[in-house]
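USER: Please consider what follows.
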Amino acid sequence: MKFFWFRLQFIAIALLIATSTLAESNGKNQPTQPNPSLTELKIAPHLTVETHLPANQIPTAQSLPSIIPESNQQQKVSYYRRSDSYATNPESDPPRYVRRLSDIGIPAFRDITWLDIGLEHRTRYEWRNNDVRRIEGGEDNPIFFRHRAWLGIRDILDPFRFAVEFQDSRVINNKHAITDQERNEYDLINAYGELYFKKALGTDDSGNDRPIRFRVGRLAYETTDRRFIARNEWRNTTNSFEGFRLNLGRETNDWELDLFGMQPVRRLQTKFDVANDHLWFFGVIGHWRKWSDIITIQPYYMGQKQTADPGGFTATNRLNREIHMPGLRAYGKVGRLFDFDASYNHQLGYSGPLQQNAQGYTIEVGKTFDHPWKPRLMGFYGYASGDRNPNDGEDNRFDRFFGFARPWSADHYVVFENLKTPKIRMDLQPTQKLGFELTYSWYFLASKRDRMFDILDGNISNTVQDPGFNRDRTGRSGDFAGHALEGRIRYQVTPKINTVLGYTHFTAEEFVKNRITASPSCSSGHTHPCVDHRSGDTDFLYFEVLISLL
């Protein structure tokens, strides 16, 4: 109860600050509108995005603060263009809730441009009915809390800079065992030092400085389309790494090179997190933006090398593994006809005694129509190979590394492995503050002899033991997992308060139904683990409030 009241007080203070800030801003003169033929939009004080659409026709990203037109001052032209595909644009660096102290609206701080600061709170309520991720049916009503704080120094000590990001993640009213996907108390997800040489590589053709940046420490960030390196913003806990990152160039340049070598951080829930010294994750990512009005090209190579951990929680942890993955992503626009985003990846190496041979690709094509409500239609297809034969000496299961999960399925039933999924999607944005999303998805297993990732306690959590009910090595359960209708309503209450209401109905098909039927039934008196036999259809409703305190 004491913990619950603390959360209520925190939210009340946040609402008070946000309301007072809004009242103050309403009393000031509004900035003049820039030329609509080439509008520069300020998403955060540190991130500028250029677009050729009118200011009132820019799609708002998930949980993104109000997009405020810049004043008519001259700006150097950025080569960076956002992708129009769904949920593939990485979080800004630093994150969107971070502000320079000079920009928070307090006159005494207007000259302090060298200090970055941010405070954020998120609460999400979920209602899940017969959640197929669990062997137990029935209802669950968890409430998730996540607090973040950022402190960073730039410019004043150049070339030395540093930043720390604190996060506290908790859950209450959850009837299931709490895992490291829900709880990670009092920890750091970023804590790094940086050497930043502003003009080390000169300037690009548009006059933008081309720096060299070298970071060492704990790092949480996203890059490319977030499918292999992501903070995982939807989840209550965040991916983090310990190691280094070297950038030649920056986001606004016509080209950039990103090199990294790091160890994933083990989330220990109630203890300070530590790096996984059995696993290294490394790679190099290129960004070619010279023709970004038409196409942005991202060639990359990523790899993992794992030494067997005899005490590892999962069978995979106890293997020697080495995976190499070359890949290519390209996105852009074909005039006013349509936009596109496509990627291809191939994985080679070994996983224990098995040779690794897997592939994955995605393609999305969409069109945003010229209408005040900015309707957008898109078609998507994603493929990730699964293990074709458990006895052929080869592992064909595609490894998503440390990518995000939510856009594959909001209820987290599937991820980027052993999957074939077509999707159709429609977005509407009647006002700058209000948005609607509707998606229909079909889920098939690429190999019916491999697993469906996160059903029937078959996940890779370090808390819940996998009973093995999510895989049929014979293939007799079929390959059609199910289909789902997903809808979301986004509403921005104030520039600092964003809300999301979402609902998903999953309709189970042969694979899910057959795995439930084939598993031992709890009603028959079978000893644990057992599965509550049910249809496999599920409902998932959630409501989320995200508050930026500065």
Notes: Confidence is low (pLDDT under 50) at residues 1-74.
